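Data availability (excerpt). The following record was deposited with the supplementary files.
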Amino acid sequence: GANLSAAQTERVERALTRALGPIAKLLVKRALPGAGSEAALWERLAAHIERPADRDAFLRQRPGG
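Predicted structure:
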């Protein structure tokens, strides 16, 4: 999995929580081992967001997004 800092993990978790609510914490925990990078983690988690506008809003919160 990706060797992400706590700050990176918290940033993606906060963004996903805004999109999906409290289930985000579990989704991040499950996605971390298979993510090879921070970018891959954001993409994996974006797949859980059904509405394209919400998914795009989530991805815009990525560093450099």
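Summary of structural features: The two ends are 21 Å apart (CA to CA).
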